[in-house]
Write a structure and sequence with these properties.
This protein is about 70% helix and about 0% strand. It contains four helices and no strands.
Length: about 150
């Protein structure tokens, strides 16, 4: 069941890898933004002179919207992606129909990509919430499917 001959597992592996990469790359985007504007640092010691911060200035630890937006995207990913990884893995173990798995898994990935774009470009909450909804529904569906499978 947990091998590449299982097409459902194969789909999950690809999608899970994409989402893990997204989860791990977003903090690097935050760091790049902090370095670009030399602001948005979090801790008081981050504003001290160092090789990576050779010219500290007052206010480096103040909230910087450009940096903080990336942090909020990362926090949103941390709220969403682990649930997808867990539900998706358990879902694979139930041997669901391939088409159902593809629809649920790729809907999640596409919705998270759209949510990232919407958040990155400062779209209205309504737009972000719509994409978040379209990403949460597949996870809820997979978890419910697993639960029904397990208790029947």
């Amino acid at each position: 069941m947990l091998n590449l001959d299982n097409p459902v597992f194969h789909v999950y592996l690809i999608a899970a890898s994409i989402m893990i990469l997204k989860l791990m790359i977003q903090p690097w985007i935050t760091v790049q933004r902090m370095m670009k504007v030399s602001a948005g640092f979090r801790s008081p010691e981050d504003a001290k002179k160092s090789p990576l911060n050779p010219n500290p200035v007052t206010g480096q630890t103040d909230i910087n919207e450009y940096v903080d937006r990336s942090r909020r995207i990362n926090l949103n990913d941390l709220e969403s992606i682990p649930g997808f990884l867990a539900a998706g893995f358990l879902f694979v173990l139930t041997s669901p129909p391939l088409l159902l798995a593809e629809i649920l898994i790729w809907t999640y990935v596409a919705a998270r990509a759209a949510h990232f774009i919407a958040y990155s470009t400062g779209q209205l909450h309504d737009i972000r919430a719509t994409f978040w909804t379209f990403s949460s529904l597949p996870v809820i569906t997979m978890a419910a499917y697993v639960l029904i499978y397990a208790i029947r």
